[in-house]
């Protein structure tokens, strides 16, 4: 006999705590996950309000944690912002997390772009085609034009 049939149905709070014990989640992500477990919408909202009040769930904390993990992966601000929006984090919280990381010196997007480019390519490219390839590489990782230009200029100076 399966063990699950013996256990009583988990409450939205139990499921949310179990999820949050593994990693941070945005409120929107938790709402989706709890809804997929057939919890009623009203119970989910009440549960998430209580968790936020108790400080167990915070979109601001999620955004900071997510930002740090993506910086470690070498992703740029455009990609990080888009990913956070997709995960349901409010734009104001995203802007605050990005600004705080820059203000605290946790991230220098220009230097990160250069480091990411340097790990992949030895030089800025001798031909326009090679240079465009490097630009596409950084753009796909979420760096803006100024950051890409900076990275290409600095990579050329290093070699």
Automatic annotation (TrEMBL):
Belongs to the RecX family. Residues 13-49 form the RecX first three-helical domain. Keywords: Cytoplasm. PANTHER family: REGULATORY PROTEIN RECX FAMILY PROTEIN (PTHR33602:SF1). Modulates RecA activity. This is Regulatory protein RecX. Pfam families: RecX_HTH1, RecX_HTH2, RecX_HTH3. Residues 58-98 form the RecX second three-helical domain. Residues 106-152 form the RecX third three-helical domain. The gene is recX. It comes from Billgrantia sulfidoxydans. It is found in: Cytoplasm. InterPro entries: RecX_HTH_1st, RecX_HTH_2nd, RecX_HTH_3rd, Regulatory_RecX, WH-like_DNA-bd_sf. It comes from the Bacteria.
């Amino acid at each position: 006999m399966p063990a699950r049939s013996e256990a009583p149905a988990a409450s939205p709070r139990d499921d949310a705590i179990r999820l949050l014990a593994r990693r941070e989640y945005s409120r929107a992500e938790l709402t989706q996950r709890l809804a997929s477990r057939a919890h009623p919408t009203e119970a989910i909202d009440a549960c998430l309000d209580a968790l936020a009040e108790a400080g167990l769930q915070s979109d601001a904390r999620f955004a900071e944690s997510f930002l740090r993990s993506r910086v470690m992966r070498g992703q740029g601000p455009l990609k990080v912002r888009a990913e956070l929006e997709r995960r349901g984090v409010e734009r104001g919280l995203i802007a605050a997390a990005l600004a705080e990381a820059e203000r605290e010196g946790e991230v220098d997007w220009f230097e990160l772009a250069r480091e990411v480019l340097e790990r992949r390519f030895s030089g800025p490219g001798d031909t326009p085609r090679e240079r465009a390839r490097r630009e596409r590489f950084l753009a796909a990782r979420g760096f803006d034009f100024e950051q890409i230009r900076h990275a290409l200029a600095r990579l050329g100076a290093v070699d």
